[in-house]
Amino acid sequence: MTRKSIKSGRTTLADVAHECGYSTSTVSIVLNEKPLARYLAEQTKVLIRDTAKRLGYRPDAAARSLRSRRSLTVGIMVFDISDPFCTLILKGIQKTLQPTNYLPLIMDAHNEPKQFERYLQMMLERRLEGLIIIANWLFVDINMLAELEREQMPLALIGRESGSMTSFVVDNEAGGHAALKHLYELGHRDIAIIRGPVQLGDSSKRWAGMDRFAKTAGLTLHPRLIVDLPETSDPNSGFIEGYALTKRLLDGRKRFTAVAAFDDLTAFGVIRALHDEGLRVPEDCSVIGFDDIPYAALSSPSLTTVHQPMEEMGRRAAERVLSGIDDAAHATPSKQYLLPPAVAIRESTGRLPRR
Q: What residues does the HTH lacI-type domain cover (predicted)?
């Protein structure tokens, strides 16, 4: 005898789960035909469906609708919470949600797409009403997001562009342009550039901005002074790779007086390598980063960097999601928001000394 109808006379997901020996979550995934069902064995799905049919299970239409039941919960999916890029973004989201009745539910996918899908499914089972995704350079589009958009789930992506959902990103091309212009105006002409991984869109856009400035200013960017970070599964590896690439540049025959690094962690690696070779920053070599993570102002020397308005990105993404929840009847078209960068001038850059 199952546990059905003792209280209500209706078979529940828990009844089906108890009868067939699987968890309620697994039964829900199968009977509601959720994307994660594709990872389950076919015989498992057949058994669950047959059991549900035999017990007379009927889905609760309200439970299947993410928009018809209120949870006052906004999901925040972080691909890697150890990435310093996330800190100020989360602060902006938290400040925006704090005065409201919405509870933020934060989950860290640890750079694993399958973990992302698993956590997202768990969020959906708790009937979250909106979703904010903080993506790093490893982010790839996940099919489940398309399904959420079809369900008109208010979504916002921070840190990566997306053609299918609302996104908030810094204008990377303008940032690259501003970084090289800053070094040029300090008198530097022999400038080394450490670009991001080739496959990363941010890297190509920052490089496009630098290249555009160089052509406008008549500045020659020497190929031997341009290197790329390797592809990696760890977005925090920039320090180690920045150190190694700077050592390689120093071992080359082409002299340079400044380095434009892909991001702040890479810039920290550059500074360490220069220090280990007995070179002073900025007296012997200027260094500029990109992002303006919290450590940038605290390092020694403090890091000149291209500031991303990360807290503002978090705030605006949260506002967009809340607006979508409040006005569910009028879906707002997806849009990409480019936020302007600014150079935060600190101690790691200086004028080219006279020789």
A: 11-68
